[in-house]
Structures are given as C-alpha cells and as structure tokens.
Amino acid sequence: RGVLTDKPEEIMTADRVIFPGVGEASTAMQYLKTRKLDVLIQSLSQPVLGICLGMQLLGTHTEENNTKCLGIVPAKVRKIPHTTTDIPRLKVPHVGWNTASHQGTGLFAGVRSDPYFYFVHSYAMESGSHTTAQTTYGIPFSSAVQWKNFFGVQFHPEKSAGVGEQLLNNFINLNK
Predict the structure, then answer these.
(1) What pLDDT is recorded for position 112?
(2) Predicted pLDDT at 53
(3) Measured between alpha carbons, how far is 87 from 21 in angstroms, rounded to an integer?
(4) Per the residue annotation, which of 24, 61, 126, 158 is the catalytic one?
(5) Alpha-carbon gap, residue 47 to 150, rounded angstroms
(6) Which residues of 111-136 are buried (b: 16+ CB within 10 A; e: fewer)?
C-alpha cells in the first residue's frame, strides 16, 4: 500500500520512497527546503526512486533557473538544445516515446533491449558513471541513474505501458 505524503516521519519509515516530479526545479527545491525535506531525502538509506524532475533534483545543479539541487548523484542537469550539429531544429520539450539503452540489470532486470518509454522534459542529466540507461534526443543523456540506494528515471514509467510496469515492479522488489 502506497502513501502520498510530505511528512518526514512517514518518509523515514517507508520501505521504499518514490520521489515524483512535475514542474520547475527552483520551486520544487524551495518546497523541499521549506519543509526540511532536502536534508531528509539526502539521509535516506532505503531505496529511493526519483521520476522525471525527481531524478533531476537528485543531481548537483540544474540549468533550470540556475538551481542548486540535492547533490546526491554527481551530475549536472542541462537544457536540451534546440539545435545540434545533426538536427537544425529540435523540438523542446522532448515529448513522446523514445528508447532507453540499458544493460538489463537493476531496475531493468527482465526489461527487453532498447525499450520505448514515455518522456516529457526540457532538461536532462548528463551521462556518467551513475548512468544505467541512456537515451539520445539531439544529445545523449542519462535516462536512468543509480547512485548507492538512489535511483532515477527521466521518463515516466507510469505512462510507459508494460515496460514501465516491469521497472516499477523491479523497484518495489529491490533487496527482497
């Protein structure tokens, strides 16, 4: 049974925490700071899954309104460019289905190769040692990350049909 809450005592005692995100980074960070949830999230030891903006806020900094983030995942979040050397007019925000290349482990256990997930975003986390899945939309970026007990997905698993359901089930069953 899931509980929707911003109460620290309920978050601290949860078996798993899903950190959703819709909206704008500086407003979301201000909300977290006002309630001291920024410090709480950083201290969590149970599995935490950041979704979309929730994943971005796990990073160190985002270009969205020049916002300092939680600093859990050692990566920056950058605006998706409107043009690249290959694509002169890239539509931003990135909305729709795109593939996520992964190694089939962790959250992606049992998920077919290069599955399609549903994305809605204008900013993306840079790729690095934390990257567990990568997507290209004009530029390559982390579509999924893991750092210790923190996981993040840029796409919306809840809107991604069967592969999204598999990924969420994998998160629910971590360490069981």
Answers:
(1) 93
(2) 98
(3) 28
(4) 158
(5) 6
(6) beeebbbbbebebbbbbeebbbbebe
Q: Would residue 130 show up in a list of annotated catalytic residues for this protein?
A: no
Contact between 28 and 65 (Cβ < 8 Å): no
Nearest-angstrom CA–CA distance, 28 and 31: 5
Q: What is the mean pLDDT of each run of 10 residues along the chain (176 residues)?
A: 91 96 94 97 98 98 98 98 82 96 95 96 97 96 98 97 97 88
Annotation says 69 is catalytic = no
Is the pTM higher than 0.90? The answer reads yes
pLDDT score, position 87: 73
Cα-atom radius of gyration of the chain, to the nearest Å? 15
User: Tokens representing 64?
Assistant: 């969205």
Pick the catalytic residue: 61, 126, 156, 165? Answer: 156
Token pair of 158 as six digits: 């809840």
Q: What's the CA gap between 104 and 25, in Å, rounded? A: 30
Given the residues 52, 64, 94, 130, select the one marked as catalytic: 52
**pLDDT, position 52:** 98
Among residues 151, 147, 123, the alpha carbon closest in space to that of 137 is found at: 123
- pLDDT confidence of residue 21: 85
Query: Token match 């190769």: residue?
Result: 113
